[in-house]
Amino acid sequence: MKNIRNFCIIAHIDHGKSTLADRLLQFTGTVSDRDFQDQVLDDMALERERGITIKSHAIQMNYKYKGEEYTLNLIDTPGHVDFSYEVSRSITACEGALLLVDATQGVQAQTISNLYLAIDNNLEIIPVLNKMDMPAAMPAEVKDQIVDLLGCEEEDIIEASGKTGLGVEELLAAIIERIPAPEGDPDAPLQALIFDSIFNSYRGIISYFRIFNGTLKTNDYVKFMSTGKEYNADEIGVLRMQQEPRKVMKAGDVGYIISGIKTSKEVRVGDTVTHVDRPCEKAVEGFQEVKPMLFAGVYPTEADQYEELRSSLEKLQLNDASLTFVPESSAALGFGFRCGFLGLLHMEIVQERLDREFNMDVIATVPNVSYNLYTTKRELIEVHNPSGMPAPNLIEHIEEPYILAQIISQAEYIGPIIKLCLDKRGTLLNQVYIATNRVELTFDLPLGEIVFDFYDKLKSISKGYASFDYHISGYKPAKLVKLDILLNGDSVDALSSLTHVENAYPFGRKICEKLKELIPRQQFDIAIQAAIGTKIIARETVKAVRKDVTAKCYGGDITRKRKLLEKQKEGKKKMRQIGKVEVPQSAFLAVLKLD
């Protein structure tokens, strides 16, 4: 055990985690030059296209240092705030973390957020200054920021470059010397924590674990503690470029277990595996329950694909434990699921993965955050969906979730950033200069205001420099109203939303204007209305496609023309009564992108 090191790489988005991981794998000979490709650990096509890490990836490396053979278990983690749950799980399986800071950009919000996660878990932190080969690198300034943040010595900071491989040898030496070996007793009862799992259509569910105590052998009879189910460990092994089977694994090891589990409900990330005949006394402390920030309905485009969608979501949930879903139905879209996401990017990625990995074509409704609603009978109802709201006369008050947002930016962009946050009903709590030209702003903001386009706007007004991180701070009373969208008098529940009183009028008007462009013309007029309760606040009309019925009527009395027009009008009225308006998927998407 003294020659094992378990560590992860944490950083803000685009600070070069995956590139540095590539260099470590090449330097230790874990990946051959023939198999090598950039971002070698990002095995999803989606990750390569977007250049972001979505999943944390574990891999084992071997390295000889001062005549001794060391086993290094590396976990590369995502950097985006929407995937922070992946990071918290990876950290639980490690003893140390490489904290990467981009030498051209300095310390950013997600760097601080991930650092606190690591410190809470008592990890040994190794600060690394990455991208030292860049002409825009500012090593002296950024080192000062790291020293302020960590309270370490300047010589503890390792200068590296993921692109050129500078400092990799020094980094491996630091991992071996500074990160402690795992503690645990190989002779104690087995205690292993599951930190991830994937679905394989041939072998069932493959779970990734870290053994804290005890020893696991192939064909051992094991029990998953939270479900109480018992299985044979058909195959165990370590994670290298491919899975490599092993006969025995001991405390401190990270690896995988295949036990022929077919149903995804039987495996929970954060569960503990132990022996049936000699169980451990208590489970390993798992992870805190994930709290979704954003809720949206996901419906199959074909009604008969409901069960397929359920099994696709269950398989996806294995691999992405921060996704939650419950069944729901909608008058406009039929049966589907109310899904909980950690943010808009997470929602987009889930939709993409459903399409690519499971071939599921889905419609997603307008996302909402969850509100606490108090009725006049003093009952508390959690509302995820505007259609689940009681009548306005039964509502005492509504509370909406607020977040504590941390924005780090260059000083010259302070004005526009403060204006953006105040427009979103935010309150400036604190303003601290971390360096001469870098400032950290802390805001109290309603979560509902930032889920749509806040992040994009923040990036554009700060020319990409501002970084943003947040966590839920609690609920506060708010003046919210339910905004309904009516087509020919019928409410489209998939487009209804909960919004602040001040935003209701402009938002309703914009939706009506947008829908007018997107809904195809029919043989009859379509009235698009935005309503609060029974009060109509905005209206647009999609004009009917008309035939010129008076073309054949030349000369004669005006009453002949009038008669033809009246006859046409009657027909249109009848059509409107039986006609049905189809809302295209582009309309749902357009509502998300409303400026």
Concise description?
The chain has 595 residues and is an alpha+beta fold. It folds into 5 domains: 4-178, Rossmann fold (3-Layer(aba) Sandwich); 191-275, Translation factors (Elongation Factor Tu (Ef-tu), domain 3), CATH 2.40.30; 294-367, Alpha-Beta Plaits, CATH 3.30.70.870; 372-478, Alpha-Beta Plaits (2-Layer Sandwich); 482-592, Alpha-Beta Plaits (2-Layer Sandwich).
Description:
The chain is of the alpha+beta class. The protein folds into five domains: 4-178, P-loop containing nucleotide triphosphate hydrolases (Rossmann fold); 191-275, Beta Barrel (Elongation Factor Tu (Ef-tu), domain 3); 294-367, Elongation Factor G (Translational Gtpase), domain 3 (Alpha-Beta Plaits, 2-Layer Sandwich); 372-478, Alpha-Beta Plaits (2-Layer Sandwich), CATH 3.30.70.240; 482-592, Elongation factor 4, C-terminal domain (Alpha-Beta Plaits, 2-Layer Sandwich), CATH 3.30.70. The protein is built from 14 helices and 31 strands. The strands form six sheets. It has an eight-stranded antiparallel beta sheet with strand order 11-10-16-7-8-15-12-13. Helix 7 (306-319) packs across helix 8 and helix 12 (501-518) packs antiparallel against helix 14. The two termini are 56 Å apart. The mean pLDDT is 84.
Mean pLDDT, as a whole number? 84
Specify the number of helices: 14
For the record, the CATH architecture of the largest domain stands as: 3-Layer(aba) Sandwich
As a percent range, the share of helical residues equals 25-40%
Spatial strand sequence of the major β-sheet: 11-10-16-7-8-15-12-13
Largest sheet: 8 strands, antiparallel
Q: How many domains, in number, for the residues?
A: 5
Report the top-level CATH class of the largest domain.
Alpha Beta
Unreliably modeled segments:
none
